[in-house]
Amino acid sequence: MASNSSGGGGSDRQRIAQQRLRIIAGHLRRPVDVDSTILAAECKAQDSKTDVSSEGRTVPRRRQEIMKWNGWGYSDTKFIFNKKGHAEFTGKRYKLSGMVMPALKDWLEDTFGSNLQHKSPAAPILTSGAVQPPTLNEAFVEELKSTGIPFSHDAEDRVFRAHGHCLHEIFALREGKVGRVPDLVVWPNCHNDVVRIVELACKHNVCLIPYGGGTSVSSGLECPPEETRSIVSLDTSQMNRILWIDEKNLTAHIEAGIVGQDLERLLNESGYCTGHEPDSMEFSSLGGWVATRASGMKKNSYGNIEDLVIRVKMVTPQGVIEKSCLGPRISTGPDIHHFIMGSEGTLGVVTEVTMKIRPMPEYQKYGSVVFPNFEQGVACLREVAKQRCAPASIRLMDNEQFKFGHALKPQVSSMFTSFLEGLKTFYITKFKGFDTNCLCVATLLFEGNREKVLQHEKQVYDIAAKFGGLAAGEDNGQRGYMLTFIIAYLRDFGMDYYVIAESFETSVPWDRVLDVCRNVKARVVQECKDKGVQFQPLVSCRTVGVPGDGPCQMNKGSEPCSSTGNEAREGEHANWGSILFSFLFLHWLKLHFI
Amino acid sequence: MASNSSGGGGSDRQRIAQQRLRIIAGHLRRPVDVDSTILAAECKAQDSKTDVSSEGRTVPRRRQEIMKWNGWGYSDTKFIFNKKGHAEFTGKRYKLSGMVMPALKDWLEDTFGSNLQHKSPAAPILTSGAVQPPTLNEAFVEELKSTGIPFSHDAEDRVFRAHGHCLHEIFALREGKVGRVPDLVVWPNCHNDVVRIVELACKHNVCLIPYGGGTSVSSGLECPPEETRSIVSLDTSQMNRILWIDEKNLTAHIEAGIVGQDLERLLNESGYCTGHEPDSMEFSSLGGWVATRASGMKKNSYGNIEDLVIRVKMVTPQGVIEKSCLGPRISTGPDIHHFIMGSEGTLGVVTEVTMKIRPMPEYQKYGSVVFPNFEQGVACLREVAKQRCAPASIRLMDNEQFKFGHALKPQVSSMFTSFLEGLKTFYITKFKGFDTNCLCVATLLFEGNREKVLQHEKQVYDIAAKFGGLAAGEDNGQRGYMLTFIIAYLRDFGMDYYVIAESFETSVPWDRVLDVCRNVKARVVQECKDKGVQFQPLVSCRTVGVPGDGPCQMNKGSEPCSSTGNEAREGEHANWGSILFSFLFLHWLKLHFI
Predict the structure, then answer these.
(1) What is the distance in angstroms between the Cα of A449 and the nearest Cα belonging to chain B?
(2) Which residue(s) pair with B479 in the sheet?
(3) What number is the average pLDDT over the span A537-552?
(4) What's the mean pLDDT in B547-553?
(5) Which residues contact B287 (CB under 8 A, 6 or more apart)?
(6) With 0-12 CB in 10 A as exposed, 13-18 as middle and 19+ as buried, what is B406?
(7) Is A248 exposed, middle or buried (0-12, 13-18, 19+ CB in 10 A)?
(8) Burial B432-446 (b: 16+ CB within 10 A, else e)
(9) Which residue of A has its CA nearest to B557?
């Protein structure tokens, strides 16, 4: 639009049209020519590391130095069966790291009837033979060299940028099946590097695929096999700095390649946070959140990405597009941000984002509630939404997820003692009236100043009590959220034993939530049967209210959400439930021959 | 996009592009062929008035039956000087109707040094000679006849649709200057009528301009003088029904031509409201709110139009565009609603809207606070925003607006007794420490359940006290909001005496609000001087916080707004002030010769 709106001339009618377009596009910054001197200067400034902070970034150019090439997360972190035959979580990075989960093995065998002698290990290393040689556009490469922007056509670098984290993508990699991959990977260091790269790509008819954190679950990173042009993966991971923080107006201007964990850590050092916490936040990038319209688990308190973004700078083949002001809302013309968000990298490369920031919350408290059955739990969530008093996060897990979480409880450890105490009580005393094959659990996270949090907590537990809900302790709650970051590792563990997992999500009016949960589960079971899957699948779901939120997928940061406690949006909050169907496990001895 | 996303074929690359587009556009409903039988059936249903309600609509096809052709609002309502030489507001429609404002005359003379003998009356009636004969597209007219959809090329009908309410538009009409006007006015009765009209317009190369309430201040209704095609004004005013209300999920499906006052009245009959109250709500239409991205005075509690809209149906030359589901948020693909909102009728005709509704508020309470000066008032608004406890509406008026409002106080009447008492007290007792040339006033509106409102009220008055603010009574507050609907009549009154008025708005970070107010006022004064305007202009402003809101204009429903009381959006709420500069009066004895 920026470029369209700048045009002129032509016939009268064109002129009129142009004029109207200019009015509607009045909120967009006029395109500017990239002055190479400015370009050099800016990039020098960025090299000189005078920015707010540039140390200790998580993601190196060569991701293989710390991450798996054919699975989720860090190379040093995975589930295994140890010598004693117990499931163990390796590494030192997570609270669960180094712990043993004695119950997991039996749960796997009992649930899927799988024989754990029966392994389906992933191809250990990438055989260079599996990767087709790069189709290089020599003229492009030559000019790229002259810019000094680093690039590589190393096979590993290319394979790392050829996929996101859809099940089928990881499945193929584990089988050693590598399809069409980028021919080149380039690492811009700043916005102007991206401008240069896009210019060269247009000039030489090269196909660009922006790459942020690589956690996409929309197939946005897949290279079309039919693509005959040279495909270049534009990896933003080195554009990872906070360029400035405005403490007066609580905004920060940030390069789009920074990953969530770095962004939060760096802001925390200054006493601030964005509050945007998608499940994938360890590895997903700010630019990725914008391009995929991400939402975070604390959206009730902070909003989704579209609520947090003030201004986006995007490089398109037609030029740089950006709003002309930092106003929080503009009533003249369409909102270009809402075309950038959800465009999945197809319209351009997001390079810089101005975001709202907030002082870190004074006080945080986890919690959990056990309900006699799912129906009661859903009724409670709906009431919480109606009363507009939802905590920062509230998730209702069904009985299957409750049992699964139970199977993941680690061996006694300082951290989990009280949790196990909780569990003892659980079966022995107050919960004994509950049928363990029916009960379900809600996990809670409260944030704010201490006094308000405690009030708020009481209000929510009082509502829960009306629906037969009983408080089940802080540790159960905290543990629930901690598992969020473990789930994808568990998916890979399952695949070692012929078990696959996927998730999908939708939103429906509250009065349809129970039907949809029941019917989808039944349909999945039926489909597996029809397709001759040997064992019955496990389908579970978790439900949350929606403050204006709809379908989104796991690695995109699908998260529970309910009312914001905002008197403002009653209709909105009270009336939609979001359902994440997940952990759909299949024993696919037959399935993978289909 | 709907149509693009449905295409296929072409080369491999086109096919890939199409496929990606289909994914991104997955949330859009596939275009459907309009089946004329369905069409007939639906329209019959609509004629049979079986819808939720279709009685007592405000706006007739022939607007001239009740409204002014060259000024704001109802024909029977205007300001005049009565026989006693006092300003009087005629008619019976408003609380102020029939009342006398003794102070207004002196205020006018003193403020502008204008001689009220010196009149600049508007051309009383429309002389048909002033209107150029219609350029009709016979083929289009013939086919239009066959559809049975009513239309007219009567001169008055056409002039009524040729303008919005920008100052220059009304000014020209008062001078009897009528430029290019639509050649034909057509009144569709339902969505399918619009589909038919747009089809015919495309087929016969006729230019369509959608017309809702005619309150546009973006020149969106002006006919380009250069336009050689036949221009048809598509008047949605007869598409004014609520098609259904879903009380379970608090949504309503409504035809886009309904005006605000009808929509609220009809919903109120069922115990609901939308809470969307732009200044123009008496006459502006739902479709207009969507096309112009309107905001309302209670946005703190209900949100802006983009927060209230669940689904929009728009007829474009490429077909009907509409989301495929009613989900409150979709994370896959761009949000097409944000391209429809702000498009000002340039992309298509909005025909139906599904909107959130809410139960009517239990309790409403007005209020007002007087501050010793504007600086203190701004500091208070900022603090209210920071503490996230803003009422449904809070507006801070500067000293000029305070004096102006004072000049509008009506002669004693039951309704205003206590107000006058308030004023007495005002000068005589507690406010005597204040300099009447410095003090400023904030008006407040609280909504919710009674107990919460009273708590909330106390909290806000406590904050105000910290900034030297003193409560000045409910009536002052209520009166302030009542004047909202009178202002445009007052603009026309001023024009009778060579006084013109306009307004404009912007948003800036809180720390810039005072500078911007001061500098803009100074600049306007300077510009008038440079242009040889005989008398000094009066520039006043009112300031409000912004819950994510930016520039918008008076008749679009520019309204005060501050924090939503939503813990969620601190950064957002605490950090932007919106400023409406208005009532810029000029004595233009010279000006209009420039």
Answers:
(1) 11
(2) none
(3) 64
(4) 32
(5) B210, B212, B236, B256, B257, B349, B350, B351, B353
(6) middle
(7) exposed
(8) eebeeeebbbbbbbb
(9) A331
CB-CB neighbors (< 8 A) of A292 in chain B: 331
| Most confident segment among A242-251, B175-184, B416-425, B547-556 | B175-184
A354 touches chain B (CB under 8 A): no
- CB distance B217 to B554 below 8 Å: yes
Helix (H, G, I), strand (E, B) or coil at A76: coil
- The continuous run of DSSP H or E covering A582 comes out as strand A576-587
Is there a contact between B509 and B545 (Cβ–Cβ < 8 Å)?
Answer: no
Q: What is the pLDDT of residue A38?
A: 39
| ipTM associated with this complex | 0.77
| Three-state DSSP string of A154-215 | CHHHHHHCCCCCCHHHHHHHHCCCCCCCCCEEECCCCHHHHHHHHHHHHHHCCEEEEECCCC
Distance CA A167, CA A502 (A): 6
A565 touches B: beta carbon within 8 Å: yes
d(CA A463, CA A467): 7
Pairing of strands B504-509, B470-471: unpaired
Q: What is the pLDDT of residues A180-226, one digit of tens each?
A: 999 999 999 999 999 999 999 999 999 999 999 999 988 889 999 88
Q: How far A374 CA lies from chain B's nearest CA (Å)?
A: 21
Query: How far is the CA of A398 from the CAs of A375, A393, A540, A543, in angstroms?
Result: 9, 17, 6, 8
Mutate to test the interface with B, among A350, A567, A573 (most CBs of B within 10 A): A567
For position A34, what pLDDT does the model report? 43
pLDDT surpasses 80 at B375: yes
pLDDT the model gives residue A499:
86
Mean pLDDT on B542-569? 37
Give pTM, 2 decimals: 0.82
User: How high is the pLDDT of residue B570?
Assistant: 33
Residue A296 Cα to chain centre, angstroms: 8
**Which two three-digit tokens encode residue B414?**
């039951």
User: Residue holding tokens 């803003």?
Assistant: B390
Angstrom distance (rounded) from CA A582 to CA A167: 12
User: Residue A266 has which token pair?
Assistant: 């760096």
Percentage of chain B lying above the pLDDT 90 cut:
48
| HSE, side-chain direction, 13 A CA sphere, residue A312 | 29
Strand partners, B396: B442, B543
Residue B281 φ/ψ region, left for φ over 0, alpha for ψ in the -120 to 50 degree band, beta for the rest:
alpha
What was the pLDDT predicted at B52? Answer: 41
Partners of A574 on chain B (C-beta within 8 Å) are 250
Output the 3-class SS for A4-29: HHHCCCCCHHHHHHHHHHHHHCCCEC
pLDDT of the residue at B433: 75
Q: Which of residues 14-33 of A touch B (CB under 8 A)?
A: 15-16, 20-21, 23-24
- pLDDT at position B113 over 80: no
CB B562 within 8 A of CB B513: no
A271 versus B535: the higher-pLDDT residue is A271
Interface-testing mutation among B218, B301, B331, with chain A (most A C-beta atoms within 10 A)? B331
* Whether pLDDT at A79 is above 70: yes
Q: List residues bridging with B544 in a β-sheet.
A: B578
Inform me whether the C-beta atom of residue B271 falls under 8 Å from chain A C-beta atoms: no
Position A33 scores a pLDDT of 45
**Residue at token pair 């390796």:** A90
